Amino acid sequence: MRQLRGQERVITANRQTSWAFADAFVAEDEALHWARDRAREVGLRSVSPGTGAALRLLAATTDAKAVAEIGTGTGVSGLYLLHGMRPDGVLTTVDPEPERQQFAREAFRAAGYAANRARFIPGRALDVLPRLADGGYDLVFCDGDRLESLDCLAESLRLLRPGGLVCFEGVFADGRTVDSAAQPAEVLRLRELLRAVRESQELMATLLPVGDGLLCAVRRG
Questions:
Q1: Residue 168 in contact with residue 156, Cβ under 8 Å?
Q2: Per residue in 123-147, pLDDT tens?
Q3: What is the per-residue pLDDT for 122?
Q4: Nearest CA among 136, 154, 138, 148 for reference residue 196
Q5: The pLDDT of residue 16
Q6: SS3 for 213?
Q7: Angle between helices 49-61 and 76-84 (to 10 degrees)
Q8: Cα atoms in the Cβ-side hemisphere of radius 13 Å centred on 200
Q9: Among 45, 66, 189, 217, which is least packed by CB within 10 angstroms?
Q10: Is residue 10 predicted with pLDDT exceeding 60?
Q11: pLDDT digits (tens, 9 = 90+) for 79-118
């Protein structure tokens, strides 16, 4: 990669400072801190506070009653989604690791959410999603296997009501998505996802520079 000039170094440093400030701007409660600690213990990377706050805002903006989450983890993103959803909303969250979902259950309980506010389904996303109702969801959040991104996009479009939102976490891939060097298959798949969403006539999309990149798109009516 080319060497940065002085002004470019300043801009890059300012952006990094601004991103750090955006994350620090978000206040997290004890349940979120607990869920983050569990994620670190099992070697998972949770969504950043800025990404979580964006998800919370999007859930609130859509007045979400039904949300599907691909990748429960230890409950960090789920907590943010629940914080933004309607009081009678239900989060359906899918993960191949049931023990991680148990951590999420505990985190949701600690945050004061009743058991009926979340439906935990263990299993691979592409095995579970076909069983969910067509057009039954206001928001679908995807934070699973990047190699399955395009398949998850197709399933998400089926699940979403008109005007619903689909969001993909981690599309920057730590800067590798825009790096011209040779990249692994998962990064190539992310590039395909970005292209498919941008070119889709069914979606209106934007890419939010929070965390490791949050791709968001509204399903047109």
A1: no
A2: 999 999 999 999 999 999 999 999 9
A3: 97
A4: 154
A5: 79
A6: coil
A7: 30
A8: 21
A9: 45
A10: no
A11: 999 999 999 999 999 999 999 999 999 999 999 999 999 9
- Say if residue 158's pLDDT is above 70: yes
Residues 174 and 146: beta-carbon distance below 8 Å:
no
Q: Three-state SS string across 76-123, please? A: HHHHHHHHHCCCCCEEEEEECCHHHHHHHHHHHHHCCCCHHHEEEEEC
d(CA 212, CA 221): 29
Contacts with 187 (C-beta within 8 Å, 6 or more apart), sequence order: 146, 173, 176, 177
Both tokens assigned to 179: 């790096």
**Token representation of residue 1:** 């990669």
* Dist CA 2 CA 45 (whole Å): 30
Which of 71, 105, 63 minimizes the C-alpha distance to 87? 63
Cα 138 to Cα 170: distance, rounded to the nearest angstrom: 21
Smallest Cα–Cα separation from 85: which of 121, 115, 61, 54? Answer: 61
Task: Output the six-digit token pair for 35.
Answer: 């869920």
